[in-house]
Each structure stands twice: as C-alpha cells, then as structure tokens.
Amino acid sequence: MAVRKPPITTREYWAPGHAACAGCACATALKLATKAFSEAMEEKYGDPNAFAIAQATGCMEVVSAVFPYTAWKAPWIHVAFENAAAVASGVEAAWKKLGRKGKVLAIGGDGGTADIGIQALSGMLERWHNVVYLMYDNEAYMNTGIQRSSSTPYGAWTTTSPPGKYSIGEDKPKKWVALIAAAHQIPYVATASIGNPFDFVKKMKTAAKVDGPAFVQVHCTCPTGWKSPLEKGIEIARLAIETGIWPLFEIENGNFFNIRIQPPGGGAKVKREGDRIVAIEFKKPIEEYLQLQGRFKHLFKQPEAIDQLREQIKAMWKVLGVDVTLPKPGE
Amino acid sequence: MPIRTVMKANEAAAWAAKLARPKVIAAFPITPSTLIPEKISEFVADGELDAEFIKVESEHSAISACVGASAAGVRTFTATASQGLALMHEILFIAAGMRLPIVMAIGNRALSAPINIWNDWQDTISERDSGWLQFYAENNQEALDLILMAFKIAEDERVLLPAMVGFDAFILTHTVEPVEIPDQEAVDEFLGEYKPKHAYLDPAKPVTQGSLAFPAYYMEARYTLWEANENAKKVIDEVFAEFEKRFGRKYRKIEEYRTDDAEIIFVTMGSLAGTVKEYVDSLREKGIKAGAAKLTVYRPFPTEEVRELAKKAKVLALLEKNVTFSVGGALFQDFSRALINQEERPILVDFILGLGGRDVTFRELDQVLEISRKALAGEKFEEVNWIGLRKEIL
To answer: Chain centroid to CA B251: how far?
Structure first.
C-alpha cells in the first residue's frame, strides 16, 4: 500500500502536555514553526536537530517550561521578557566558536518583540546574527492577562484599553514590526498567519535557510484574549487575511520597492502590474472578522470606529504599495 | 616568562580576559571601563584572542548575550560600570539563578543622579544580593589576578556562579601601575579549558534552561544559590592558595595589615586600602596602635574571617564608599550581622567617604581616627559619620 508522505515532518519539538489554553493558535504556530525549522536544518545541514531556541517571557514560555516539566524536545533557553534576541546573539556566537553547525530560533510574543524587546531585536538584526526571530502576534500581553501592546489593533478591548464613555478601546493603530525589521535590510522578512499554515511553514523554512538574520511575524488567535470561540481560531485568522486586516508579504534584503504581497483569497479581486500586486478589492467586510471576537463587540455600537479602522487598514496597505477597497457589510 | 610592564587597570582587565581565553565577549562602552572592550577588540582584531566579540547595543544586551553564550557552554566575559551595571541588574539575578559562571570586570563608579563618572562602590554594592561573587582589587595587579582567579572559582562545580571583579574608577582604571602579566602557558595550566559537564544547548542532548518554577520549587532553587555561595568560601581559599603557589602572589579574603596588637583597625576595600595602610604606618610611627584590613572578597561575605579580625581590635572603623540610606554603609550592616551573636565584639564605627570620586587623604583619615579614638575612650560617638562633607554648600 502506498503511504502518502506527510506534508510536514512527524518529528515533534513542541511536545504534547504543554499547558496552553484550549484552542490556542499560538501553540499550533510554535509546533509548526519548529517542525519547519527542523526540515530546513535537515535540508541545509543534514541534521534535523541542528537548532536551539531562545524564547522571551510570555504565554508560550510559561506554558511550555513549568519546572520540573518541559514541552521542549529541542535545546531551549528562556532568560527574560525583553532579551530573546540578545540571548540568541550569545548562543549563536558561542555556537560559532564551538564550530557547531545550525541556527538559532528566537521566539517572542508581540509584547516581548514590538515593545520591551524591540531594542534587543534591532541590535541582533543589525549585527547580522544568524538567527531567525519569530514573533507570534496575538495582539496583547496575554501572559499577564490581556493588556494592550503596541501590536494591539485599533478599537480592541484589552484590560488596559477598555471601552467606556470616553474610550472606544485601543485608540492607536497597530505597530508594524515586520516593516521595522525590514528597515534593517536583513535577508528575509515575512508576515504569516496561522490561518494559512502551509504558507507559514514555507516562510519559516525560507527564513531558516537564509544566511544571516530573518524575521517572521505570525498572526495567531488567542481565544482567551480575543473572547472568541475555541474552535474558530484558524477560521478567524483566515478571515483576517481575507478581509484585509492582516496582509501577507515577504521582503528580501530590506527592498521595500519589491515587497512580495500575497493575494488574500476570500474572493478578493487582485490587480497586478507585472509581478506586483498594486490593488486589491476585498469582498469580505472587516465586520466578518470583528464580529467573531468579543474584544470588538463594542465597536458595533460605534460604526464610525469601524470606519476609522477601515481607513487605518487602507493607510497600512498604502505603505505596502497597494490600493485597497474595503467593503462595508452589504456592499 | 611573565612580562613586567606598566598599565592601567582597564588594560590589566583586558589582559586577564585575553589570558583566560573566553570564547564569547559581549560589551558596551561605558566610562570608566570603555578601554576594556577597546583593548579586547584590538586583541581580537590582531588575532591574539580567538573569540567572538559581540558589540551589543546596550549593557542589558551585553549581559543577555553573555547568558546565552555561557548557557551554550563557553567561557564568557564582559565589563561595565555604574549605570551600565544598573542596566544589567535584572539579568544579573538570572545569570546567577541559572548558575552561569560569567566573569565581569567593573570600573567601580558612582550612580546617578547627579551623573558622576568618578569612583565609589555604590554600583557593585547595589548588586550584592544578585548571587554574583564579588571581588575588589586594591591595585592593577590585583585586578588582573582576581579576574583570572574569578574564572577558576566561578567555574568550579561546587560553585557555578558568576563573578564580578571591581576596581576603582580612574584611581585604578586610568592610572598606570607596574603589572606582571603571567605566562599564557602558566595561565592555561592554572585555569584549564572550560568544559562544562552538563549538556548546554546541545541538539544532541536537549535540555530546557530557564524554566518557570511554581512556589513548590522556587525556594529550593534559591537555596541552592545560598549553598553555592557558602561552597565558594572554601573554593576561594583553595584557588587563592593555588594561585600563590603558581604565581607567587598571596591573596586572602581579608588581608590584614599590622593588626596584631591594634586597638583600632581601619577596614575597607579597593584602592582605599593602599592609602589606609600608609596611614597606619604613619600612626604607628606616632605610637598609635592602629591596623588595617582589606576585604578582597565581599560576596560570599567572609564571616569567619571577620570574626577573627574582630577579636584583634577594640574598634573597627569601617570606611565605605557606599550608602544604605538610614543605615550607613553596606559593610556596617554586614559586620554587625557577623558579630551580633559573638560574646566579645569590638565597637563598630561607620564612615561614609569618598563618594563620587571625592578624595580620601590623610586629612579625612585623621577625622576617622579622631572619632574612632573617641569611641575607644568610651566617649559619645556617632555610629555613622559622613567624612569630608562640605557642609558650607549644603
């Protein structure tokens, strides 16, 4: 009987038994990321295990390494909240001197990357360490109980951006760390989503195989923090892509004039000039994405806030060089 | 053959690092320690030191990179001072908690505000509870020697703790003194190659480092740090003895000077010890029974040696370049604790002096003597005394 080759290795590095919440899409992201890394190491160095992980404090850290247990089947180190990139720099330097072949994977959430860890990240990227930095973006400080980060989207409820008489929730647009990373002109930067796992795996492998630093930002749902149904994580993440909330792109060597934008799917109409996507007409309104999450519930009483979010998304796409049309419901 | 030459303590520290053959160094420039990374980068550039030198963007990342490198199993070195050390604060506790034998040179400098680049010990004293071993050098030779010994002590399996070696800003960091640079072969023999027994970030033998510990485990982890500090006391003695045998220079946790029949002993650390010894000589010429003692090792605190020292004097005058507010200096607390349950104990008088690079000369020491003699005579005295304070500008 012919046995079909699995689409990704059956080797596990993020083992069952971790303490993540039910429906945690970030846990899935880490599982896939390490599998992808392993495949890349096998292809590049002939050794699927030729990597170590340096991880920032955050929900994925605390749920995976509760002494005396560990969910990690790879060499793994956690030091503090803001320094995964700096720790990874040290590990990489040590490996270089030990003559050890392989690559270091640094992992941080949006708080440990976009906020407190951005200096260490910038230093690591600028010094050109052979490290892949994976930012898992669940858009708030989930570990400490859902406080806003600079990666929290406009309008979202968090415990520190509560909607109220004088507040619509988070009142600043999301910070785009992938673009900041790309400004270091590093070999590879990508955004990915747990809503498109194959694409995410492909990007992780590409990142792991480049020589020098790489940065991947993966959007992953958090049922607890987003007040969303446990079973809808992947669907919600996919809707983020299909409604224009979450752009998927790649940037090589910091070349902003050649950002590879990916078509979002969901019936969106894509206009190209040569290889390049210049305009996208989305078919699904962002409301489809927002309505599945309790963190945006209050916005439906303030439609002007949703319009404001639409304008911000357009502006963000403009930075990427794409004109987008975002429909309102029923349009 | 060892080379006898003259150099600043910063250069001596860089030479010590070079002789110890660390594989990874991560450092950020800060006054007065900048010359250390500069000199090391020259060694690396010239191929005299085969190491990765990570030019980090901050001290926080310097110590973080050192933690990463040390956790990957290589000998690791860094240097800093003052605000830089304060910026490392959080990670210092983690380095110790993870039992990583990183060695760090410190040009002891005052902390802001007001910003001040000159010498006192507030920077390292403020990190006394981090779990790091702390050594203080009196001169440039000691800076070099103590860094070498710090590696051996830190890496000892009974210890496995990071270690910092302090030397006074400008008084030593920027002052040229005679220094003997030991032979590379002799240092290699003394230190040996660093080969940690445990699997450190090794894909062939993956381990998880830096776990989360619930209340059921945290206290025990902290207790092992306590134990390691206690173990370090014996290891320090052994390493000091071996160093003396190999290199001929004698070190003690507390170095005593003319203490045998002393009534007043001046206790201090760092470069001030040199001044105090000379001062003691001048007092002896006048027939005053004074002695001096220098703490070379501050953490682990040499409690036994302090108790022995205390038996020799009626007054211990503690000369401190640091302040613990509303208490006095750190030594005052430590000595009080070491002596509180002893049947016979000398009077402790605390002196805060030399902060932010204020000179400590015989004139200041005369004031110390005067107050100490008052205490000795059973007269009223202040427990904590600020010496050299310019009250007219207050």
So the answer is: 13
Q: Determine whether the interchain pair B203/A78 forms a contact, defined as Cβ–Cβ distance below 8 Å.
A: no
CA proximity to A134, closest of A58, A23, A241, A44? A58
Report in angstroms the alpha-carbon separations of B248 from B4, B177, B185, B244, B318.
14, 18, 16, 4, 30
Count Cα atoms within 13 angstroms, Cβ side, for A214. Answer: 24
Task: Give SS3 for B71.
Answer: helix
Cis bond upstream, residue B178 (ω within 30): no
Q: What residues of chain B, 187 to 216, have a C-beta less than 8 Å from chain A?
A: 199-214
Q: Give the residue among A227, A34, A212 at the shortest CA–CA distance from A124.
A: A212
- Averaged pLDDT, B315-322: 98
Read off the amino acid at residue A17: G
d(CA B273, CA B352): 15
- φ, ψ of residue A180 to 5 degrees: the values are -65, -45
Distance (Å, rounded) from C-alpha A119 to C-alpha A71?
29
B89 in reach of chain A (CB within 8 A): no
Question: How far does Cα B55 stand from its chain's mean position?
Answer: 25
Q: Report ipTM (2 d.p.).
A: 0.96
Nearest Cα residue in chain B from A73: B206
Tens-place pLDDT, residues B37-59: 999 999 999 999 999 999 999 99
User: Is residue A39 over pLDDT 90?
Assistant: yes
DSSP A252-277: ETT-GGG-EEPP--TT-EEEEETTEE
The pLDDT > 90 percentage for chain A reads 95
